[in-house]
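Onboarding guide, step 5: your first structure request.
Type a short instruction followed by the sequence, for example:

Predict the 3D structure of this protein.
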Amino acid sequence: MIENPNSKILRQSALYFILSLGALVMIFPLIWTVSTSLKTKDKVTLRTIELIPDPIALENYTDIFTNQPMLRYTRNTLILVVASVFGALVPCPLAAFAFARIPFPGRKLFFGLLLATMMLPYVVQLIPLYIFFDRIGWVNTFWPLILPRVLGHNAFYIFLIRQFFKGIPEELFDAARIDGASEFGVWWRIAMPISKPVLAAVSIFAFQFAWNDFLYPLIYLGSNQQNWTLSLGLNALKGFEGNENSLNVMMTFSVLMLIPMLIMFYFGQQYLIKGVSVTGVKG
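The system replies with structure tokens like these:
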């Protein structure tokens, strides 16, 4: 049965309209945030919706660097980002390769325990971890946030990379071993170069988690403003009096926090999709 071309065009037009409407609904909060960040303080208090502010207050983006220690907040956040990305790219692939390709006693048991940690609610871990770090004197320092990230504490990254390694033909690893490569050499020269998509994906995940993380910095850095991250600095604006607690200042801060994530997603979306999708090729 030949489909009527007019009905096909009508169906596709309706589909595009629905998708465009959904995209507009999803992107409207971002548009509103950018618009509010460009408004003056008196314009923010108006109840009318004004997506294109008049006048446009570009000085909000310079004033926030004057009124807030943005550079210090950014430096502290980048410390956590670097630790998270390092942990996702070095310890996690090492553990994933061991679980995927190196037979050792109790491998299935240890991998099952690793997966079990993903099922624990994060709130269950908060109190014992805080007590532990408090007793060794690490509270109000970066160490409770840096050390677990550097050591690759995220079981989901290990699971994702392990699934990718399982999809690589074993013949490639055997050929490297016949040529005299050690297990570390097989991991470094064979597994890692092939795994660029999944490594890019976990790097984006690690960057996003560390950049936006609010709870753990609040717990371990809450009383030390010198170590505050961007998320803590943004949250603190709600408690200030005068110009600092104006909504346009908060939105300006939010836009500045969004820019690195948007850039990261724009350039890494193809790796993110490919890296996640190919991990399901083999179990």
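Each response can be followed by summary notes, for example: Residues 5-37 form one domain.
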